[in-house]
Amino acid sequence: MQCDPLFEVKGMVVIVTGATGGIGAQISRCLGMRGARLVLMDLEQETLDCLADSFPGDAKPQTRRLDICDEEAVDNAVRDVAKKHGRLDALVNAAGIYRVAPIAELSSADFLDTMAVNLTGPFFLTRAAARIMSEAGGGRIVHLASVSSLVSNPEYGAYATSKAALSQMIRVAARELAPKGVTVNAIGQAVTETPLTQKLLSDPERRADVLSQIPMGRLCEPEDIFAAVLFLLAPGGAFVTGQTLYIDGGRTLV
Ligand SMILES: NC(=O)c1ccc[n+]([C@@H]2O[C@H](COP(=O)([O-])OP(=O)(O)OC[C@H]3O[C@@H](n4cnc5c(N)ncnc54)[C@H](O)[C@@H]3O)[C@@H](O)[C@H]2O)c1
Predict the structure, then answer these.
(1) What is the pTM of this model?
(2) Is residue 42 lining ligand 1, measured as CB closer than 6 Å?
């Protein structure tokens, strides 16, 4: 695919975590079509294999089972990719979970699980990638945050707290890693139709409510997210760091 050099990701070695999820799979395809050398990671090897098989022969990605909450497994997975490919150019973390309930009813398990996957796991990944990228003199780290990094929706006590903390963690990491040429950013997208939001969006009333809060009057499409990920990984995004880029049709303006 012919590409503007500002948005070129061809040949980049990129880890995608949460790669078989609704957004992760689409980001993986988008990067794969543009010639990135991908290593896809998620909880189930079988699903990863299915996804990899859907890529054309010359772009078939590698896969590896990874629970991002397993500190040692994260360190090993990231180090192994760098060793095998001789470098690690970028890490895109699209893993996440979504548990909602009013604070008075939110279970401790749901709160703690949300923190583990949406915050502690991203910390393990950032740390592992930062060590390798700092030594190599550069790299790009992108997490999927959410409009919930800013917006305080009722029932989002766990989810919004995890995403707000993630958006702050990337600011600190970005500041520390800037002198090493490593950028750390997040995408803050509005609601997108994926398995994560299936229950929410299949209820007509709640769907209408979600749409009514987005000034542009539509959901976020995967393409909206690709453009931002490409920008943050490619040469054009080299000077952007510590940002949560809101791709939200104006949702965070409301
Ligand atoms: N869909 C939306 O509307 C929306 C909006 C804003 C932000 N986000 C964020 O975008 C990201 C992707 O969401 P999605 O809609 O694709 O969700 P999804 O449920 O379709 O996919 C999430 C993926 O994360 C993986 N995962 C969960 N726990 C994991 C763990 N411990 N280790 C490794 N992988 C794990 C799951 O297996 C799944 O493949 C999430 O961080 C989510 O919070 C989604």
Answers:
(1) 0.98
(2) yes
